[in-house]
Amino acid sequence: MSSPHPNLLPGGEKEERWRPVRTSGLPGETAALLKTKSVYDQPDDSDGVRVLVTRYWPRGVKKEKAAYWLKDLGPTPALIKDWKAGKISWGDFKERYEAEWREGDKDRLLEELEGIVKKAGKNNVTLLCTCREEAECHRGILREKLTGC
């Protein structure tokens, strides 16, 4: 039985959103699991290194909730505004976010994020954002860029 909510399993349990990240060229060698979650979700030991990837620091969230803050990996304020106002579809959001990658310095920031993953070693890395659901959040796009799927 499937849940009507994309991130909830039947019975209301949250589905873990993670993918293995290969940090070397050796086939099958993975150092960490790359997870995503809302910064408002309760931290747990399986989060490992927590990386906030939002443009603005979220209200009411203490600085110790994230080990790193890569704010420029978040969408631009104009893109956030259009998305939250309902002016663009999720497909349009993804296209514009991808365009921001081509026009900006996000590749350097992605390399910085890859460095954090490598430094984490066998520890998990969790990408955090204020969005409650990954299905329509840029952190899912970032995870795809890091994992290649």
Describe the structure.
- This protein is an alpha/beta fold.
- It has one domain (30-147).
- Helix content is 32%, strand content 17%.
- It has four helices and five strands.
- The protein has helices spanning 77-84, 90-103, 106-120, 138-147; strands at residues 18-22, 30-38, 49-52, 68-69, 125-129.
- Strands 1-2-5-3-4 form a five-stranded mixed β-sheet, with helices on one face.
- Strand 1 (18-22) and strand 2 form a beta hairpin.
- The radius of gyration is 15 Å and the shape is globular.
- Residues 1-31 have low confidence and may be disordered.
Blueprint (SSEs and pairs):
Blueprint: E1 18-22, E2 30-38, E3 49-52, E4 68-69, H1 77-84, H2 90-103, H3 106-120, E5 125-129, H4 138-147
Parallel strand pairs: 2-5, 3-4, 3-5
Antiparallel strand pairs: 1-2
Count helical runs: 4
Distance between the termini: 26 Å
What is the number of domains?
1
Query: Order of strands side by side in the largest beta sheet?
Result: 1-2-5-3-4
What form results from the Cα inertia axes? globular
Average pLDDT across residues? 79
Helical residue percent band = 25-40%
Alpha-beta content class: alpha/beta
* Rg over alpha carbons: 15 Å
Give the SSE order as H and E letters.
Answer: EEEEHHHEH
Any low-confidence stretches, pLDDT <50, length ≥5? 1-31
Instruction: Work out the strand percent.
Output: 15-25%
How many E strands?
5
Please outline the major beta sheet: 5 strands, mixed
